[in-house]
């Protein structure tokens, strides 16, 4: 679930927003973020979110925006303050969507980041899309202790548990409790920190890097676990 552009059918066929239009609004959003202009940033995000479906907004707007923010920070074009400013706005928007989209019935998922992992926005994107696909979603967010996650799972008895991390060390440091968790519930790992070798070692499912593809895969597998 890394911040990459989703593989989707052309947006123009569904919404009238083609690649050029989305690219243009992303450039304007980045300009507004550079100016710390909250009103303009929110207005531009409102404009594009009203014109495209949720998968397109997540896969072609939110995730590429996060990736570009990171790239510009690494190049020294944006400061940490810019990154925090933009992340706060995006997280608030996604959190509201996650609450609105979560269903009271259907397969259930508990989503969390392991200890020492604060980057939870890609996981929040997954939560929004799972809710849109009819899942009950419980989002625990960043830096969730494994004992607390296990306790929540015993209470909720979820269909699926998803953990996401940007660094493989975040998973390696909890490999033993992760194996115990995977013996009791179906566990899936995502983010740049999730590798095939790690998933095999702890007996968890490795999710595609693309968050939209990950949701579609999980949704395809859900009927067998309902």
Task: Looking at this protein, list some descriptive labels.
226 residues; 5 strands; Methyltransferase, Methionine Synthase (B12-binding Domains), Chain A, domain 1; 10% strand; Rossmann fold; 59% helix; alpha/beta
Descriptive report:
59% of the residues lie in helices and 10% in strands. The chain has two domains: 12-100, Orthogonal Bundle (Methyltransferase, Methionine Synthase (B12-binding Domains), Chain A, domain 1), CATH 1.10.1240; 102-225, Rossmann fold. It has helices at residues 12-15, 19-34, 38-51, 54-74, 80-101, 121-132, 146-156, 168-172, 175-184, 196-202, 211-221; strands at residues 108-112, 136-141, 160-164, 187-190, 205-206. It is globular and about 50 Å long. Helix 10 links the parallel strand 4 (187-190) and strand 5. With 226 residues, it is an alpha/beta fold. Helix 4 runs antiparallel to helix 6 and helix 5 (80-101) packs parallel to helix 6.
In short:
59% of the residues lie in helices and 10% in strands. By secondary structure, the protein is α/β, with parallel strands linked by helices.
